[in-house]
Amino acid sequence: MGHHGWQGNPPGTEQEARRRIVEAATACLDRAGLARTSLSDIAAEAGVTRQTVYRYFPKLADILGAVAIAGVEEFAVRMERHLATFGSPAEVAVESVVFGVRAVPLEPRLNLLLEAGEGEFFTGAVTSREWLALGARILRNVPVDWASSGVVADEDFAGLAEVLMRLFLSFLRHPSTPPLSDTQLRDLVGRWIGPSLAS
């Protein structure tokens, strides 16, 4: 494994190398923002060449996705806590969309996904294996009677998470005109998602 640079302290594993590049990217983004952060900046912060960064993250979008994932745990805890205040699988599903639409733009790390501009980056990040697994975990941790709605197996939670994440992704990328209030958004999603999870 090549260790050019690394400020004289090469990582011992591929995972450690990736972690340190993500930490370097986070420092650059915190300092300069997305518009003024390049792969060259991240490489300099990590003490490596651009080629080394490319080896672990072929595109800046890949690094941004990793930075967002690294900052998502606290968000997931808050989302689980919020969803736990609802009593049925249908309510939890609907509220997960509303929470995602309203909260993601306010999260510094997750907002990177919105700031990154048009194209497939946002979609690719939110529908990646890691994000879908996170969504499934959040749903599974909410203490409602999922079995009453037919959501039992791992693939059930994974499928539901994917549908809900794709739904809130759509609302984020293409907001309604005029914008929907929380109540309107909740009613719209509940009208079409709720019946599929009714006991």
Automatic annotation (TrEMBL):
<dbReference type="InterPro" id="IPR001647">
    <property type="entry name" value="HTH_TetR"/>
</dbReference>
<dbReference type="GO" id="GO:0003700">
    <property type="term" value="F:DNA-binding transcription factor activity"/>
</dbReference>
<protein>
    <submittedName>
        <fullName>TetR family transcriptional regulator</fullName>
    </submittedName>
</protein>
<dbReference type="GO" id="GO:0000976">
    <property type="term" value="F:transcription cis-regulatory region binding"/>
</dbReference>
<dbReference type="InterPro" id="IPR009057">
    <property type="entry name" value="Homeodomain-like_sf"/>
</dbReference>
<dbReference type="InterPro" id="IPR050109">
    <property type="entry name" value="HTH-type_TetR-like_transc_reg"/>
</dbReference>
<feature type="domain" description="HTH tetR-type">
    <location>
        <begin position="15"/>
        <end position="75"/>
    </location>
</feature>
<feature type="DNA-binding region" description="H-T-H motif">
    <location>
        <begin position="38"/>
        <end position="57"/>
    </location>
</feature>
<dbReference type="Pfam" id="PF00440">
    <property type="entry name" value="TetR_N"/>
</dbReference>
<keyword id="KW-0238">DNA-binding</keyword>
